[in-house]
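Title: Prediction job returns without error message
Component: structure pipeline
Severity: low
Priority: P3
Assignee: unassigned

Description:
Job completed but the reporter wants confirmation the result is attached to the right record. Sequence as submitted:
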Amino acid sequence: MPAAPQDQLAATLAERVFRRLGDGGFASGQALAREFGVTRSAVWKAVRVLVNAGARIEAVPNRGYRLSEGIAALDAARLVAQLPEGVQARVARCEVAWALPSTNAALLAAGEDPPQGRAAILLAEHQTAGRGRRGRQWVAPLGGAVCLSIAWTFAELPRDLAALSLVIGVCALRALSAHGVRGLALKWPNDVVAGGRKLGGVLIEMRAESAGPVVVVIGIGVNVALEAPARAQVTAAGNAPVDLVELSGSTDRNALAAGLVREIVAALPKFAADGFTPFAAEWREADALRGRAVSVMLGDEPQAGIARGIDAGGALLVETPAGLQRFVTGEVSVRAQA
């Protein structure tokens, strides 16, 4: 059923209110109503739309509304301006959408792939159907996460394509470290964790022609500020979450997104030329599973053993009663055992 005209107005106004409050200051309902040419009731309704979508908004009598301290709207121009010139030259386009089912799906469905050696970047303030590996939902409340996808065209199929999610994990750690976040690790094959709790995840999807260019879409989500309902939703899905507010107090999503783009776009040409090798040592140093008891799900049959790191191609090595087993990225799910 199509939305009623007043609901469409509320959604449109909600975006305008969110971006207006993104400067960090307070704005009264009366001032917002005057600025946007609507009633104070319409502003109140727009604020409720934002709160129901997970936005952290403070309402203070005689001062008005503001986004919780440190939270700001995503801004493509501000993001690109923070990139080094060499990385900027490799950005074909960068856009921020208000709401999408999935940034990965949107880039995969786009009619125009980026030229070889350049990136198409898409972020969304609100993902309504974000995805993780094996179809799991990625929970990202409005303003509370970075939901970023990068499309990249390789001239041909990279030899270590199965290890690309590991490479992106290394890039994420580099960006987060530069952002002042410490104590992080990588859980094979695609999670960024802190103390066993999930901070972020990577989803790689691709489209290829026979013996031709290969388009990969790299999705990465990072928890920035999760309120109690979002935390409960993530926990119910089987992952204990952690966010940047808890780890470092940082909420500058534009700076974090710029750091992720910087590291990933700089790494992709090196990956195309040299494969996983230049990134393997960093990944092994951050390995959250090595030496721990794990259960590997392959289909419906779990295999228990001790994680023994990764091989040269990024496959997980597990010592089992039947001997050392090799598991390839994208085929298994891994859970550490108590």
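Comment from assignee: result matches the submitted record. The chain has eleven helices and 14 strands.
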